[in-house]
Amino acid sequence: MRLSELQVGDKAEVTGLLARDSVRRRILDMGLVKGTRFKVLRVAPLGDPVEIFFKGIYLSLRKSEAADVLVERIGHVGDGNPAGQGRKNRWRLGGAV
Predict the structure, then answer these.
(1) Distance of CA 9 to CAs 5, 19, 20, 75, 82, Å?
(2) How many domains does the chain have?
(3) Which domain holds residue 49?
(4) pLDDT at residue 30, as a whole number
(5) Which residues have C-beta within 8 Å of that of residue 63, sequence separation ≥ 6?
(6) pLDDT attached to residue 20
(7) What CATH number should be reported for the domain holding residue 57?
(8) Is 49 a domain residue?
(9) 47 sits in which H/E element
(10) pLDDT in tens, 7-57
């Protein structure tokens, strides 16, 4: 399954990357490596971009980049906190976290 196929609220784990060259390096440099677990927070109306949350990072990927990330779904819509719930803690006294 590809990251671009997930819905808001889904949880998944990265199983591989199809991206090549600079796109692959960029995705890996951001920490989205094999075994990384994340949650889909938002998907734009046309699916571009997709916002995910992992390791304390909010990351938005283009639809084409998300299609290059292979994943295994580990949680479905409705598991855990509602989408966006974590944003309440994103800003704290003194600025961004």
Answers:
(1) 12, 24, 28, 8, 7
(2) 1
(3) 3-80
(4) 87
(5) 4, 46, 47, 48, 49, 50
(6) 87
(7) 2.30.30.90
(8) yes
(9) none
(10) 999 999 999 999 888 989 988 998 889 999 999 999 998 878 999 999 999
